[in-house]
Amino acid sequence: MGLKKVITWVILALGCSTFIKILLMLDLNKRVYNHVPGPCRIVEGIENGSEDIEFVPELGVAFITSGVISMVEERRASVKGGIFLYDFARRDFKAIRLPIDGDFDQTFFTPHGISAFVSKKRITLYVINHPPGGHTVEVFTFNKEKRSLTFVKTIFDPLFTCPNDLAVVGADRFFITNYCYFVNKWLNQLELALQLNLGSVVYYDGKKATTVESWSLTPNGISVHPNLTYLYIASPLGEVIKVYKLAKDMSIEKHTEVSLLSSPDNMFIDRKNGDIWVGCHPVGYEVIRHVDDPDNIRSSSQVLKIRMQEGHKSWVITEPYANDGATISGSSIAVYHEQQMLIGTMFHKLLQCDVINPDIV
Ligand SMILES: *[C@@H]1O[C@H](CO)[C@@H](O)[C@H](O)[C@H]1NC(C)=O
Ligand SMILES: *[C@@H]1O[C@H](CO)[C@@H](O)[C@H](O)[C@H]1NC(C)=O
């Protein structure tokens, strides 16, 4: 075969595989049917997103980030970002906005991933922020009596290029995911459509960040096992959760991959049994349109629960919740505590569900 012919065939083959990849990503023939684990209700107080939720077992409360704008810059002006508190014990189904004291500019607060560090009952929150023209990690402490936050400091590093979520493993030490490479809206869409592996995972050691994984396909939610033995990274376009073994020196080694055939966003790890609760986007084309126009286009919601078996070698996946988008749109996280589940969404409301029979969800 001549060189020209070979090149033609290679280009044709690449074109076909890209086309098929995009078709599969769109999930055009997929449909979600509604079910609940018990009575559910919309939590009062949150309308414009509850993208990530950090549950703090020591207090029985959850911290919720609200106000992610994605690439829809116009939302910056209308949506007021903030951190909300939900108290499971009260059962009043209300989330309250936490006032922030200290020298912190809240005008352009667009909180994204959140992770907490608890030491001697002192709760420190690490929150990804996207102020205009940059990406930072904001650090706050929580005042339990006043129900407020105090701003501590901003952490910045040149390797925080497209940060999405973080997992704290010690004071000022965390893993952070860079979801993409291109932050320009159109290049970003091209990068995602072609499923280029241009994301990365970095580790910040209190002074500076180092890359621990490059060429990663859309690393999004990141969580650590409560015993700091495993690290989990959700890849929405890969439709998998990657599992890494975490060493004492915080180095990671690929262990396995949990295939979901649904796009995982953020995760919560139950400290009691290691169960992984995941907020998912089950239908690709719906979530793509929803991200572009959150106020007018709905996207299905799905919560999956993964129970790891002995040595993280096998697992059982169940689906505690599914919704076609009419009740809540674009589920991005679920947390579980004492027969209650909270489901957060990228741009929409927050849902609370009672879990009537936890043994079978
Ligand atoms: C949500 O955003 C809209 C503007 O888009 C605003 O009018 C409304 O007050 C916001 N709701 C809350 C609870 O912040
Ligand atoms: C964490 O480690 C302890 C001690 O090895 C063990 O008893 C516990 O079950 C582990 N927790 C989880 C969630 O696996």
Automatic annotation (TrEMBL):
> Would the keyword Membrane turn up in this protein's UniProt record?
yes
Keyword terms, alphabetized: Calcium, Disulfide bond, Glycoprotein, Hydrolase, Membrane, Metal-binding, Transmembrane, Transmembrane helix
- Requisite cofactors: Ca(2+)
Write one Pfam family the protein is assigned to: Arylesterase
Q: Which residues cross the membrane?
A: 6-26
Spell out the catalytic residues: H112 (proton acceptor)
Q: How is the cofactor bound?
A: Binds 2 calcium ions per subunit.
The molecular function GO annotations come to: arylesterase activity; metal ion binding
EC assignment: the record states 3.1.1.2
> Which positions in this protein are listed as binding Ca(2+)?
E51, D52, I114, N164, D165, N220, D265, N266
Instruction: Report the Gene3D superfamilies cross-referenced here.
Output: TolB, C-terminal domain (2.120.10.30)
Q: What class does this enzyme belong to in the EC scheme?
A: hydrolase
Q: Which residues form a coiled coil?
A: none
Which family is annotated? Belongs to the paraoxonase family.
Q: What is this protein called?
A: Paraoxonase
Where does this protein come from, organism-wise? Plectus sambesii
